[in-house]
């Protein structure tokens, strides 16, 4: 799960730089940079603050960040079939 990539993509889609998002979320720019670089996984409180600042839910960020490796082996084929549509739907809701 590369949650940082998702946060970075959402931030950029809203035309925000790291300084602006970190200020809106009440975290340091250094912390946001580490999260976006997938060097640090955000705490639940930090993820809630970032999600609120971006106007999305934590669940949407988790789902948009999922990879086939996050899914049990017996469910991977289903994931591969369903996930692209689910991700596109979330992107339309939160990015468009």
TrEMBL record:
Gene3D superfamilies: lambda repressor-like DNA-binding domains. Keywords: DNA-binding. One of its GO terms (cellular component) is cytosol. SMART domains: HTH_XRE. Residues 7-61 form the HTH cro/C1-type domain. Pfam families: HTH_3. GO terms for molecular function: DNA binding; DNA-binding transcription factor activity. It comes from the Bacteria. InterPro entries: Cro/C1-type_HTH, Lambda_DNA-bd_dom_sf, TransReg_Diox_bact_type. This is DNA-binding XRE family transcriptional regulator.
């Amino acid at each position: 799960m590369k949650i940082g990539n998702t946060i970075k993509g959402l931030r950029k889609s809203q035309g925000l730089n790291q300084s602006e998002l970190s200020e809106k979320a009440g975290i340091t720019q250094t912390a946001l940079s580490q999260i976006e670089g997938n060097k640090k996984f955000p705490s639940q409180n930090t993820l809630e603050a970032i999600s609120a600042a971006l106007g999305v839910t934590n669940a949407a960020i988790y789902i948009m960040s999922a990879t086939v490796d996050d899914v049990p082996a017996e469910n991977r084929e289903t994931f591969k079939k369903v996930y692209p549509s689910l991700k596109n739907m979330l992107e339309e809701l939160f990015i468009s």
